[in-house]
Amino acid sequence: MPPVLPMLAKPVARIPPGMQYEAKWDGFRAIVFRDGAEVELGSRTGKPLTRYFPELVAAVRERVPERCVLDGEIVLARDGRLDFDALTERIHPAASRVNTLAERTPASFVAFDLLALDDESLLDVQLTDRRALLERILSDVTAPVHLAPATTDRDVAEEWFEQYEGAGLDGVIAKPPALPYRQNERAMYKIKHERTADVVVAGYRLHKSGPVVGSLLLGLYDAGGTLQHVGVSAAFSMKRRAELVEELAPLRMADASGHPWAAWSDEVAHETARLPGAPSRWSGKKDLSWVPLRPERVAEVAYDHMENGTRFRHTARFRRWRPDRTAESCTYAQLEEPVRYDLREILG
User: Fold this and answer.
1) Domains and CATH numbers, the chain
2) Does this model's pTM top 0.90?
């Protein structure tokens, strides 16, 4: 019975041997419960996602066994690749908007584990047996429900790691074959792409605990010479957060006048440029104000994935300052673009 908390993965640098390997999907993790006509879509935190994806509720009723619990990912594809931005737009408070988006940008569910079937809980059953049952019950499943590809061949997993990024996927998940299902434990392994980029540090937000740096605001220049906000770097010790305030003090501006992101508080300005503080349903009443810096300091950061080629999908990891680089040289042109790969080749 819901809620069930999904089993999680811990990051490792390389694909380990002797595992079951799957793609790492870039969507909303979801536990799907079906009991006859009743369908519930549970999020990673256990909160229901059911009302936001009526098309998946209908598909689950039609395409999966009458009584089962599936672990998987809700994803949304556009032009042959995953589109996380479009997926986040599906979380909307208005029922009319939810129904419109369900028709305009329908989602899919990719199943990669089976937690219960009929009267039997499978949480203590090893992965290889759960996978065999999953393949049997979804052998003829049709879109928008999909069976996630899996392999025990490490060489195939290496190929997936290189190819699937072009379809918008995050990397590879490795699962021990004898692993029972462990709720909310990091019992699996995730291998994600990591690249570095030189970025302009053009501002920072204060930490919730006081007047120290919470996150650095990062920018890259586009082909037209405009500095676009591409993400943040935030994982610092408290000592380092205090040091950063001192290091960046000479670049601090009295206000945002004259800053490339001066229009950040104007909601209309966000329609034509990437600026910090973009309004969204996710931010709620969160303080999005920031301290502007003269855009002169360059940092090297590590990142795993670009969203739509315009921003870092996740928080970037600070590596070092780059005093040898000028801010103007930090452009999108330095970023490695993965070779496109059609998502339909993965899902069939």
Assistant:
1) 8-193 (3.30.470.30), 195-334 (2.40.50.140)
2) no
